[in-house]
Amino acid sequence: TEEMVAQAERLRGRFQGDPAAEYACAQINAEDAERWFGEGKEPVIKEEARLVATIEQIDRAVGIVPRGAFVKTPLGSVRENRNFEGLSLTEAKKLSSYFHFTEPVNVKNKTLLEKADLDPSTDFLDSLEHDIPPGSWTVQLEKGGTVVVLRSLLWLGLTFYHVPMTKQYGYIYFGTGEKNLDLPFML
């Protein structure tokens, strides 16, 4: 739930590895504590709930797909594009060829002139090139230029891969579960 995500965002530190471990929520004000935990209960969050909320945060922030992998039908539903054959190598090296796989925010705020260059069936998601802060993604070529790898500097440990000219793409996260809050100072 949104409440679980909000609670988990306030916690700092690494995971302990015990799903039953409890974290005290000292930074939560009395009104939020009563709403989230009930009256008279100690404001604590189990590690299991924190893990689920952290995975949700990571998926929202850095879950990405290549341009054209999904299409929006005229009725508004989003489906996997059966005709997607992968990005070309030149397109795969551009940050603008990758989109966040979440509800779009920035696309709706574009002017009509900016929307004129977009294809409404494939460009309905937010592009990575407009992420804040700029420079929060690295693009690298691996295996002699046959695999494009994107890494997030916001959630250290997230790696996205795409094999150009094929349908192969995906991402994986091997990290500490901590957001890199120092990123704006590092850039």
Query: pLDDT under 50 segments (min length 5)?
Result: none
Strand content: 15-25%
Tally the helices: 6
Following the backbone from N to C, one meets helices and strands in this order, namely HEHEHEEEHEHEEEEH
- What overall form do the CA principal axes indicate? globular
Structural class: alpha+beta
Query: What kind of sheet is the major sheet?
Result: 4 strands, antiparallel
What separation lies between the terminal Cα atoms?
Answer: 33 Å
For the secondary structure, the number of strands is 10
Instruction: Give the averaged pLDDT, no decimals.
Output: 84
**Strand arrangement, largest sheet?**
7-8-9-10
Helix content: 10-25%
What is the rounded Rg? 19 Å
Oligomeric state, counting identical vs distinct chains = single chain
Q: How many structural units, i.e. domains?
A: 2
Family: Belongs to the flagellar radial spoke RSP9 family.
Organism: Opisthocomus hoazin (Hoatzin)
Keywords: Cell projection, Cilium, Cilium biogenesis/degradation, Cytoplasm, Cytoskeleton, Flagellum
Protein name: Radial spoke head protein 9 homolog
